[in-house]
Design goal:
Layout lengths: L10 H27 L5 H9 L18 H13 L6 H16 L2 H13 L4 E4 L15 E5 L2 E12 L6 E9 L6 E9 L5 E5 L10 E11 L11 H37 L11 H29 L3 H30 L11 H6 L2 H4 L4 H12 L7
Parallel strand pairs: 1-4
Antiparallel strand pairs: 2-3, 3-7, 4-5, 6-7
Length: 389
Amino acid sequence: MSTARTALETEEHQALRAAVAALGKRYGRDYMTTVIREGKHTDELWAEAAKLGYLGVNLPEEYGGGGGGMAELSIVLEELGAAGSPLLMMIVSPAICGTVIARFGTEEQKQKWLPGLADGSLTMAFGITEPDAGSNSHRITTTARRDGDDWVLTGRKVFVSGVDIADATLIVGRTEDARSGKLKPCLFIVPREAPGFGRNQIDMELHAPEKQFELVLDDVRLPADALVGDEDAGLLQLFAGLNPERIMTAAFGIGMGRFALGRAVEYARTRQVWKDPIGAHQAIAHPLATAHIDLELSRLMMQKAARLYDEGDDIGAGEAANMAKYAAGEACVKAVDQAVHTLGGNGLTREYGLASLITASRVARIAPVSREMILNYVSHQSLGLPKSY
């Protein structure tokens, strides 16, 4: 498929895109489905991507990263996804956790975590969602209280990806403001084997190498340096991680949509029922063309969000990142649906590798925030309409 994306990208970005696409092609969808079927993890692809410098391309050079930003990291995830082998933990480990530590962590925290996150030898999970809070971060009940020089965390988290393979989880908790008595968000690094830190795997219909977990924090005692950044800047730090999460989720959705569309276009070019390939018929061709347009438009907004974020415009990036995530989620679901429909019965076979994406594509719509909450954000923040909640 031809694409207009290169006109807006630097030569370095084009080269990165081509190199990652070549890596993804060497693994592809067959690798991913085999890993899922055997209950394994994407260790080989993760290690090779790390060795080539792709996992830490957004992290500072002085800590072993590539010195780039979300523009570069989103290219990596998109191209791996377009090859059929996306790495979901890229959204969590280098994008959220790596960014938060790089921006707000102490020097000791940066030295301890960033080189490993960059070279893939360390991974981190991210825990924010709670059973009774959903998208309302103000209802988070996981609390952290001081006990001498230590912190003690108590609470629950759900839908936390990759805790079983992560060396630590960046947990969003709330501490009490001594002046006002109100609870404010704070971020804590919780090692996987910390006493009182329990996990239960959630039985998902979604088939992916990365498993989902419920976490229970039962008086988890942490040293003072487990707190990331300033105790009084929790919201700033939190949203510094959530904007990259939305940008990378957009990349995840765009990559998956491109993979599905590529399979459908290839099929439509060669599948012949009457005298011409089915792709010659507008009932097949036009919906595929529409899906391509929607994916390209989504990428434009993702590129805008990444650029604003990398330039330090957190407010502007917040709006663009939410819009990009919304647009990519919609485009991904529509592309997958149309791809399956184009292949007919073959779209539901394991051989063509599209049926499993019917469930997987919903992730880009649902996580990390629903499309309805994004519409709320745009209604209030962009349009200035009153809140209903």
